Amino acid sequence: MRLQDRVAVITGAGSGIGRAMSILFAREGALVLAADLDGAAAEETAAQVGARCVAMRVDASQPEEVRAMIERAVGEMGRIDVLCNNAGIGSTTDVVDCEPDDWDRVMTVNVRSVFLGCKYAVPHMVRQGRGAIVNTASVAGMVGVPKRASYCASKGAVIALTRQVAMDFVKQGVRVNCVCPGTVDSPWVERLLAGVDDRAAARAALEARQPMGRLGTPEEVAAAALYLASDDAAFVTGTSLVLDGGWTAA
Ligand SMILES: NC(=O)c1ccc[n+]([C@@H]2O[C@H](COP(=O)([O-])OP(=O)(O)OC[C@H]3O[C@@H](n4cnc5c(N)ncnc54)[C@H](O)[C@@H]3O)[C@@H](O)[C@H]2O)c1
Q: Among 28, 128, 164, 188, which is disulfide-ready with 3 (CB 3.0 to 4.6 Å)?
């Protein structure tokens, strides 16, 4: 029970990695606020988790909604010990084909959401003298992935912001880290493959890109986030924990 009675807020909790985090964190004793733009998906996560989870429809890129999410955790659950800024969207173009509005949308959902989560959660964590933030970045923030211009830029920004916020609040007991998954077998990948002619070949190419020859699982990313969120990582801040089947080591 590594998160016994801790309060954890998780964005993008209605699917994939965020849902796996919600399930694992609750199993480890946390009270979970599962937030997602898709309110019904968040409700489904809460139903799967059970009594230790409440759902909330939140657009993680909108200041008033993020503020309300954090206030609800503190108001109804008493505190906020863990924030997982996990909501994110993808992109599939190179820099030439990327439309400015699409660039802005990806940066807004993937980066502004992390900024906003930190902005509104950190003051409570400082007051408590303790808190852990886990951002979901990606190996795409570390290597150049073809046709992912805005996505790579956004995840690089998440890695940089993680380090920066960690430094500002290291003396106040707030730890800030990120996970950097390689390709993970979530509904995200299903959507990616949906538009492809030869799905099996495209999936095999994604698997081959990672030296272990397989995709990661949402549960594996959730386990890494649990480590960073828990006291096991008490000496860890500002770091990027890579889970990519060896992709970036190759
Ligand atoms: N799946 C992968 O291969 C992979 C790899 C590396 C990093 N990631 C990152 O992991 C995170 C989760 O991805 P996933 O694979 O679980 O994808 P997913 O699509 O299964 O889940 C993402 C969830 O985020 C929600 N969401 C989207 N925009 C939102 C917003 N503005 N506010 C609140 N919620 C919003 C969606 O409704 C969805 O439920 C993302 O940040 C993604 O970039 C995924």
A: 28
Which of 247, 188, 248, 192 minimizes the C-alpha distance to 214?
247
Domain 7-181+218-242 in this protein, CATH class: alpha beta
Tokens 């930190």, located at residue: 118
In sequence order, what E strands does the chain have? Answer: 7-11, 31-36, 53-57, 82-85, 131-136, 174-181, 240-243
Identify which of 57, 178, 184 to mutate to test ligand 1's pocket (most ligand atoms within 8 A of the CB): 184
Instruction: Output the six-digit token pair for 17.
Output: 């990695």
pLDDT digits (tens, 9 = 90+) for 218-227: 999 999 999 9
Judge whether 34 and 49 are in contact, CB under 8 Å.
Answer: yes
Segment 147-174, tens digit of pLDDT: 999 999 999 999 999 999 999 999 999 9
Task: Render pLDDT for 117-152 as a digit per residue (tens, 0 to 9).
Answer: 999 999 999 999 999 999 999 999 999 999 999 999
Q: Are 213 and 246 in contact (CB under 8 A)?
A: no
User: How many angstroms separate the alpha carbon of residue 171 from the centre of ligand 1?
Assistant: 31
**What pTM does this model have?**
0.99
Asked if 118 and 169 touch (Cβ cutoff 8 Å), the reply is no
- CA–centroid distance, residue 19 to ligand 1 (Å): 10
CATH 3.40.50.720 residue ranges in the chain?
A: 7-181+218-242
C-alpha torsion 55→216→142→250, nearest 10: 170
